[in-house]
From TrEMBL:
Name this polypeptide is given: Multidrug resistance-associated protein 1
Assigned protein family: Belongs to the ABC transporter superfamily. ABCC family. Conjugate transporter (TC 3.A.1.208) subfamily.
Species name: Anolis carolinensis
Entry keyword annotation includes Cytoplasm: no
Membrane-spanning segments: 53-72, 92-110, 122-140, 152-169, 189-207, 289-307, 337-358, 410-432, 438-456, 847-872, 892-917, 970-988, 1083-1101, 1107-1126
Domain ABC transmembrane type-1: 299-533, 852-1134
Molecular-function annotations in GO: ABC-type glutathione S-conjugate transporter activity; ATP binding; ATP hydrolysis activity
Keywords of the record: ATP-binding, Membrane, Nucleotide-binding, Repeat, Translocase, Transmembrane, Transmembrane helix, Transport, Vacuole
Reaction(s) catalysed by this chain's protein: sphing-4-enine 1-phosphate(in) + ATP + H2O = sphing-4-enine 1-phosphate(out) + ADP + phosphate + H(+); 2',3'-cGAMP(in) + ATP + H2O = 2',3'-cGAMP(out) + ADP + phosphate + H(+); 17beta-estradiol 17-O-(beta-D-glucuronate)(in) + ATP + H2O = 17beta-estradiol 17-O-(beta-D-glucuronate)(out) + ADP + phosphate + H(+); leukotriene C4(in) + ATP + H2O = leukotriene C4(out) + ADP + phosphate + H(+)
PROSITE patterns linked: ABC_TM1F, ABC_TRANSPORTER_1, ABC_TRANSPORTER_2
Superkingdom in the source lineage: Eukaryota
């Protein structure tokens, strides 16, 4: 190349010359220059190719990435990193590289000064490389100033530079060893220096920098460091940081505090879905918000998925070249090794790209789920009663527990919308290249299957909608049952509601059965289509996407709940605290108004009493003032902050002091004053930990009076301007009520300078109030002072005649008070491993014979598949004589028979498997859980958070319904595929028996570590999920109180914190899947390497067809299905925990039998009604003291007996003992001479009735709430309503007895 004419070659001519002289140029192929680079024992690239393409490739990469990377660093400043030894070394090496590159440049100028003219490339390439090294040095320092601890861009740059230099390095070694004439020693030395420096830079780039200064995440002393913090790029991409969690999980129990914090992760979901104000002038669109929030993440996943889909077809093409090499006995051996290495590198690159794609998708899905949960919670805080009529607590909880998970699945599978058609198009292109026009027959089959798949998809969508509707109804009913379980037990209604649940469950299973059969038909077409289309095509290593539960497309949008209206308060009026003018209210726009033409004004610092008959609208009036009702017309104005005391006290699962403070700053003097005024000091002395005693869910360890006083204390401590109190004195003793009125509410109480509206039936308080509002049939009939209303002798006088003789003094005891830790049953966060008994229980639930039959069908199906592929490989090896193969009819007949048998088996096995694993197991396990929970004693429900129970009936049952059957099928398919692949590989290359056992050992250890970690992370995630649902359910029950106190933001923060705690356990499980996949697929790629390597070594004795079958199996089956085998075994163990948790509650302590067939119950018992207590003693639990001691009393039939006593004396405990809610510790109770302990619970409770302290109504018709067993006629029901003074109220309802009650009776207040 020492030619003076070459000095005039321009840059374009250099590039054309390099292409011309490269081994890939068509003209070079014509001139037989392949002999230099391909058909030779020692191949090499031309010097021009090395000095241009190989030298410029890393430079082009860095300059192409620089603008985008610089913009990214400018927008994401993480802090400033001090100069370290590592950074100094990388910077110094960058300057050395620049010096070495430009040394070649100056050497070229020196040569020209000596009249030695080289090609211009010797001037251009060192210049480009030198400038690029300066850019790399600049980026090293810029990353340091922006707080980048580990750079993926720079790591890739140094890796590409090293790979390109390795080719030139080998060429230089060959030239030096051959003593080529004109060998350039100086450039050889500078290149060796360049190679060493690039290698050193690559090694240094694998180490992270020190943490940046002034970083909140780094210096946060409370939280554990985030998972990706301080990790270098290779460790991050291979999830190496997870080893810390794995070591903790395998060595001992993994604790919550050992799970990494996620504070450093992005929180864009909160910005778009939650915090950003909505555009009210446009129709809300959830899809647009998701696009704006998560668009960049979906774009990144799109790029990775597209690159992976293109790389998938590189394997078959390389395999095709390898088969041609095996057939060509004269080909050089190095070509086989080259194809083997290329196949291994292609598979490895696919592994890294695919799992980076899945990591992005799952993390995006996690953020999406968090955002949707946050949006649902925030919407639930503002949802109106009209919307609540169609969206009950159970349905909203189901949105959070199930539908939000479907959004998470969407992030993973949405790319299949374009990826699947792309894969089909590329596959058809390759088939056309190999088969020609005959591929059109396969295309015709595919087109014929399109309408079939379309029908299946539409029917699947229909079934999914029906399934979700049934699931919503079931969870809604179960939530009501759990909230009103005490009423169910007192009235012996368990069987009626059990039948209602089972009726909904039967419909749900019927839809699941249809879906399973439809899925079996879809599986049949899915298997038969490739069989008909591509049996003669090239092997295509198409990987399956990782399994994740809930593969059905989400058909429900949480946005359906987001259409409620906001209640807005008008501008404040002057002079009065409360002003209502010509206001009409209803619970929804579709309902008739329940408050009509309301007019009144309340001046500041006044005490106003609201009285009236039952059902006249007193509680509705307070709800209207709070904005809980729909204002049809008129004006409502409230001046100042509001505190609300509901009629049914709402107590949080927190300490007693936290319930009173309610998020406000603790001021001890004010707090002590409030506690004394609300008569809570005697209760604090009784409670084991004083005001630090943890109150159970719904205040189960407090009496009704205590709960009401805590609710009142919460309002008083808030120091609001306006107090709305809905009959707070009805649940306390008479003397306690007088104390509270005098110290708190009355003219001399601590609220004397506040505006107070008191709904009451206590006539003794009315003479001292400032104003009395009398309601009658939803209207203000009278208003004035006590004396004025008495003189009118109107509705108020009638009210006094009704209630003056009987003050309502309902009260309850505090005997249920326990220690702080005894009221919460928490599931274990970790167990050593899932016991074999759990698998056995699931097998028994499926039916042993049916399970064995399904396993046999799976085995036969995979044997038929293996045999058909093996027969096809033998067919391809048949010699071609005179243009045709011999024995074609025999080959075709056997191949068709095997294909038919496989299609028949694959269509039958899903039917059997669905019947065994999905329908039978789901039905039996749910039935056992439901029956056991309904038969648990009342103490179990008082100790167990409702979120735990809802979680069992929603999430765990959904896992048993949908996930476990799919996992079992995929596990069995993976197992049989792996065994078949090993058989094929050993048949083709027996030398593989040397490599498979060590690799199997590696698999064993990886699986062992992964399963231990995944199991504990699953349990942590499951345990941390229940508080999310419990807090959400608690919020929904007390949403009116939260809104009244304007505490929405604090509850939102609490919900977000609980969701974050749940995601802290879920995120490591995502990375654990990637950790497993990268390692298992890497070992699977090693099997591909050894299978191809041994095939190249023994190519002279192997047939090309068998080699192709062996390597294609290793590409498709080993790399994919062995990974799946380990993952599905882990998924089975982690998801079978759902069976364990369901069985755990199915085996809880049971109360006595509902009915005893041999019990001595006289005919018509009880006839007289004589009740006798003989030495009766009662305790709530075996480890507690007696709350009733040696009670002996006889009550004759027909007597009216009043039971009085101070709070906590045991009045309600005596009643609960009469219903055997708690069994006697000593003594007995006899009714008409029959010991109630000797008869069934339902035999007793059907004959005794009670008016519960806490009113409970279930969603459904009013008649169903009165007579769920339909034992009485309408006349008898109307008679009972008349006796309860409700006949007029019910008669005024549009549907009368068929009036649909909202959950909890929200529309009847």
């Amino acid at each position: 190349m020492r030619d003076t004419n070459n000095s005039k070659i321009c840059g374009l001519q250099i590039f054309i010359y390099c292409i011309y002289t490269s081994p890939f140029s068509p003209r070079r192929r014509l001139r037989m220059d392949w002999n230099l680079t391909w058909n030779t024992p020692r191949p090499d690239f031309t010097p021009c190719f090395q000095n241009t393409v190989l030298a410029w490739t890393p430079c082009a990469f860095l300059w192409a990435c620089f603008p985008f990377y610089a913009f990214f660093l400018r927008r994401h400043d993480k802090g400033y990193i001090q100069m370290s030894r590592l950074n100094k070394a990388k910077t110094a090496l960058g300057f050395l590289l620049w010096i070495v590159c430009w040394a070649d440049l100056f050497y070229s100028f020196w040569e020209r000064s000596r009249n030695i003219y080289q090609a211009p490339v010797y001037l251009v390439s060192p210049t480009i490389l030198g400038i690029t090294m300066l850019l790399a040095t600049f980026l090293i320092q810029y990353e340091r100033m922006k707080g980048v601890q580990s750079s993926g861009i720079m790591l890739l740059f140094w890796l590409i530079a090293l790979l390109c230099a390795s080719v030139t390095f080998r060429s230089k070694i060959l030239q030096a060893s051959d003593a080529v004439k004109g060998f350039d020693v100086f450039r050889c030395i500078t290149f060796f220096l360049y190679f060493a420096l690039v290698l050193t830079e690559l090694v240094l780039s694998c180490f992270p920098e020190r943490p940046p200064l002034f970083s909140e995440t780094v210096h946060d002393p409370v939280s554990n460091r985030p998972p990706l913090y301080g990790q270098n790029c290779p460790e991050t991409r291979c999830a190496q940081w997870l080893l810390i969690t794995i070591n903790c999980a395998t060595s001992h129990q993994l604790l919550k505090r050992q799970v990494f914090s996620l504070k450093a992760m992005a929180a864009e979901e909160a910005e778009a879905l939650i915090l950003r104000p909505a555009q009210r002038d446009k129709k809300p669109s959830l899809s647009k918000v998701l696009y704006k929030t998560f668009g960049p993440y979906f774009l990144m996943s799109f790029l990775f998925k597209a690159f992976h889909d293109l790389m998938m077809f590189a394997g078959p093409e390389i395999l095709k070249r390898l088969i041609i090499f095996v057939s060509d006995q004269s080909a050089p051996n190095w070509q086989g090794y080259f194809y083997t290495a290329l196949l291994f590198l292609s598979a490895g690159l696919q592994t890294l790209v695919l799992h980076q794609y899945f990591h992005i998708c799952f993390v995006t899905g996690m953020r999406l789920k968090t955002a949707v949960i946050g949006a649902i919670y925030r919407k639930a805080l503002v949802i109106t009663h009209s919307a609540r009529k169609s969206s009950t607590v159970g349905e909203i909880v189901n949105l959070m527990s199930v539908d939000a998970q479907r959004f998470m699945d969407l992030a993973t599978y949405i790319n299949m919308v374009w990826s699947a058609p792309l894969q089909v198009i590329l596959a058809l292109y390759l088939l056309w290249q190999n088969l020609g026009p005959s591929v059109l027959a396969g295309v015709a089959v595919m087109l014929l299957l399109v309408p079939v798949n379309a029908v299946i998809a539409m029917k699947t969508k229909t079934y999914q909608v029906a399934h979700m509707k049934s699931k919503d109804n079931r969870i809604k009913l179960m939530n009501e049952i759990l909230n009103g379980i005490k009423v169910l037990k007192l009235y012996a209604w368990e069987l009626a509601f059990k039948e209602k649940v089972l009726g909904i469950r039967k419909e749900e299973l019927r839809v699941l059965k249809k879906s399973a059969y439809l899925a079996a038909i879809g599986t049949f077409t899915w298997v038969c289509a490739p069989f008909l289309v591509s049996r003669k095509g090239p092997p295509e290593g198409i990987r399956s996407t990782p399994f994740h539960h809930g593969q059905n497309t989400p058909n429900r949008r949480p946005g359906s709940l987001f259409k409620s209206l906001y209640w807005k308060r008008p501008p404040r009026a002057n002079g009065n605290s409360i002003t209502v003018r010509n206001a009409t209210f209803s619970w929804s726009r579709s309902d008739l108004p329940c408050l009509n033409n309301i007019n009144f004004a309340v001046p500041e610092h006044r005490l106003v009493a609201v009285v009236g008959q039952v059902g006249c609208g007193k509680s509705s009036l307070l709800s209207a003032l709070l904005g809980e009702m729909e204002k049809r017309e008129g004006l409502v104005s409230l001046k100042g902050s509001v505190a609300y005391v509901p009629q049914q006290a709402w107590i949080q699962n927190a300490t007693l002091k936290e319930n009173i403070l309610f998020g406000r700053e603790a001021r001890e003097r004010q707090y002590n004053c409030v506690v004394e005024a609300c008569a809570l000091l005697p209760d604090l002395e009784v409670l084991p930990s004083g005001d630090q005693t943890e109150i159970g869910e719904k205040g189960v360890n407090l009496s009704g009076g205590q709960k009401q006083r805590v609710s009142l204390a919460r309002a008083v401590y808030s120091d609001a301007d306006i107090y709305l109190m809905d009959d707070p004195l009805s649940a306390v003793d008479a003397h306690v009520g007088r104390h509270i009125f005098e110290k708190v509410i009355g003219p001399k109480g601590i609220l004397k300078k506040k505006t107070r509206i008191l709904v009451t039936h206590g006539v003794s308080y009315l003479p001292v109030v400032d104003t009395i509002i009398v309601l009658s049939e939803g209207k203000v009939s009278e208003m004035g002072s006590y004396q004025e209303l008495l003189q009118r002798d109107g509705a108020f006088a009638e009210f006094l005649r009704t209630f003056a003789s009987a003050e309502q003094t309902r009260e309850s005891d505090a005997g249920k008070t326990l220690s702080q830790n005894s009221w919460v049953d928490s599931s274990p966060s970790s167990l050593p491993q899932v016991k074999p008994r759990v698998y056995w229980e699931y097998m028994k639930a499926t039916g042993l014979w049916l399970a064995l039959l399904s396993l046999l069908l799976f085995l036969c199906n995979h044997v038929a598949s293996l045999a058909s592929n093996y027969w096809l490989s033998l067919w391809t090896d048949d010699p071609v004589i005179n243009g045709t193969q011999q024995n074609t009819d025999l080959r075709l007949a056997v191949y068709g028979a095997l294909g038919f048998s496989q299609g028949w088996l694959v269509s039958v096995s899903p039917f059997v498997a669905s019947s065994a694993w999905r329908l039978l197991a789901s039905r039996r396990l749910h039935l056992g859980l439901l029956h056991s929970v309904l038969r648990c004693p009342m103490g179990f429900f008082e100790r167990t958070p409702s979120g735990n129970l809802v979680n069992r009936f929603s999430k765990e049952i959904d896992t048993i319904d949908s996930m476990i059957p799919q996992i079992i099928k995929m596990f069995m398919g993976s197992l049989f595929n792996v065994v078949g692949a090993c058989v094929v590989i050993l048949l083709a290359t027996p030398l593989a028996a040397v490599a498979i056992p060590p690799l199997a050992l590696v698999y064993f250890f990886v699986q062992r570590f992964y399963v231990a970690t995944s199991r504990q992370l699953k349990r942590l995630e499951s345990v941390s999920r229940s508080p999310v649902y419990s807090h959400f359910n608690e919020t929904l029950l007390g949403v009116s109180v939260i809104r009244a106190f304007a505490e929405q933001q604090r509850f939102v923060r609490q919900s977000d914190l609980k969701v974050d705690q749940n995601q802290k356990a879920y995120y490591p499980s995502i990375v654990a899947n990637r950790w497993l996949a990268v390692r298992l697929e890497s070992v699977g790629n090693c099997i591909v390497l050894f299978a191809a390597l041994f095939a190249v070594i023994a190519r002279h004795v192997l047939s090309p067809g068998l080699v192709g079958l062996s390597i294609s199996y290793s590409l498709q089956v080993i790399t994919t299905y062995l990974n799946w085998l380990v993952r599905m075994s882990a998924e089975m163990e982690t998801n079978i925990v759902a069976v364990e948790r369901v069985k755990e509650y199915s085996e809880k302590e049971q109360e006595a039998e509902w009915r005893l067939p041999g019990a001595p119950i006289p005919e018509g018992w009880p006839q007289e009604g004589r009740v006798e207590f003989r030495g009766y003693s009662l305790r709530y639990r075996d480890d507690m003291d007696l709350v009733l001691r040696n009670i002996t009393i006889t009550i004759s039939g027909g007597e009216k007996v009043g039971i009085v006593g101070r709070t906590g004396a045991g009045k309600s405990s005596l009643t609960l003992g009469l219903f055997r809610i708690n069994e006697a510790a000593e003594g007995q109770i006899l009714i008409d001479g029959v010991d109630i302990a000797s008869i069934g619970l339902h035999d007793l409770r059907f004959k005794v009735t009670i008016i519960p302290q806490d009113p409970v109504l279930f969603s459904g018709s009013l008649r169903m709430n009165l007579d769920p067993f339909e034992q009485y006629s309408d006349e008898e029901v109307w008679r009972s309503l008349e006796l309860a003074h409700l006949k007029a109220f019910v008669s005024a309802l549009p549907d009368k007895l068929l009036h649909e009650c909202a959950e909890g009776g929200e529309n009847l207040r």
